[in-house]
Amino acid sequence: TWRTTRKLSIQLFSISFLFLSIYLPLIIFGLIRTWIDPYFLYVFTMTYLAYVAYFVSLLMPFICLISLPEIVTKIKRLCCLTNRVEPIQQQQQQIAMTLMTRRNIQQT
């Protein structure tokens, strides 16, 4: 129960953060343009901020995928590829020693 509540709250906060981080600048610029100056950063608002709202629909599937535990383990496995380097000589010595001990056991 605690684990599911934690997962749901993390997913809720991540979706809320996505919406707030994208729509809050739009709201602030809209309020400034409405109450103070109608031409406040007009060019910037029309060229860049008009298209920022489309990022919500593009980023929402990734936030939902990150909340799935199977996907998180696959992402961690892909990102944290560790190459283990082991000496071959030591392995060959261990194999030779096991063969020698087997021969000694069989001879007695």
Describe this protein's structure.
With 108 residues, the chain is mainly alpha-helical. It has one domain. Helix content is 82%, strand content 0%. It contains five helices and no strands. Helix 1 (2-35) runs antiparallel to helix 2 (42-52) and helix 1 (2-35) packs antiparallel against helix 3. The longest helix is centred in the first third of the chain and has 34 residues, at 2-35. The radius of gyration is 30 Å and the shape is elongated. The termini are far apart. The model has no long low-confidence stretch (mean pLDDT 78).
Per-chain topology:
Layout: H1 2-35, H2 42-52, H3 54-66, H4 69-79, H5 88-107
Helix pairs in contact: 1-2, 1-3
Transmembrane segments: 12-36, 48-68
Keywords: Membrane, Transmembrane, Transmembrane helix
What is the rounded distance between the termini?
A: 62 Å
Beta-strand share of residues: under 5%
Q: Any idea what the radius of gyration is? A: 30 Å
Number of strands: 0
The global form is elongated
User: Can you write the helix and strand succession as a string?
Assistant: HHHHH
- Low-confidence regions: none
Whole-number mean pLDDT: 78
What profile does the largest beta sheet have?
none
Q: What number of domains?
A: 1
Number of helices: 5
State the helicity in percent bands: over 70%
Question: What structural category do the secondary elements indicate?
Answer: mainly alpha
Keywords: Membrane, Transmembrane, Transmembrane helix
